[in-house]
Amino acid sequence: MCQLDELRKCLNVDALQTALKSLPETLDDTYARILCNIDKNHSEYALKILQWLAYSARPLQMEEVAEVIAVNTKGKPRFDPKNRLWEPRLILMICSSLVTTVVSTIDDGYGKTREIEEVRLAHFSVKEYLVSDRIRTGPASRYNIAKCAHDHIAQTCLTYLLYFRGPSLLTLDNIDEFPLVRYAAKYWTQHARMAGNDTDQTDRLSIELF
Fold it and tell me: CB neighbours of 107 closer than 8 A, spacing ≥ 6?
């Protein structure tokens, strides 16, 4: 599928023939090429998105993943709604053919169901490559997420929750304006536990929250 996406970009026969000659020989090579071709200005965004999709505690909705982009665990402000993506679907452009969407039906808690759009890694082999030893020694090594993903997710959740400590209080009237808040409140402790030891920043943020 990833290689087909590359071929679809060809505009004429010459371009198609050139692309066919240069196609990667293995799946690892295909994923490495896609990662290396991600716009440098978007690489940090891509890294966040891939970490979340690979290690989230449950499937994530498009708006939840997009919200992660606006969180800066070490910056000031740590979270600013103005830094959200213009359009949540831009995450599909940022991560190219490594991610896809599916429509799922969920219970809204009131006896009714509704459809939501979830974002997922395009194939289980994408995560397998992202957490493998093979990526560490290849050209896409900066996207190796095996060691730090849970810690980064925990920090993002805590940072997001700390936004509501000051004047921006969370209420029943505005909770739907913050798509990530339910996930962050429910799962930050799980990610913190999975992160293990040597998580000083996560520890500081959790102390600050309490």
Answer: 113
- Signed CA dihedral, 200, 67, 121, 186: sign only: positive
State whether residue 26 is helix, strand or coil.
coil
Does the pTM exceed 0.85?
Answer: no
In our burial notation (b when 16+ CB lie closer than 10 A, e otherwise), range 98-123 reads bbeeeeeeeeeeeeeeeeeebbbbbb
Neighbour count for residue 6 (Cβ, 10 Å)? 19
- Given the DSSP bridges, would you call strands 99-107 and 113-121 parallel, antiparallel or unpaired? antiparallel
Alpha carbons 129 and 188: distance in angstroms, whole number: 25
Would you state the pLDDT for residue 70? 92
Where do the domains of the chain lie? 2-209
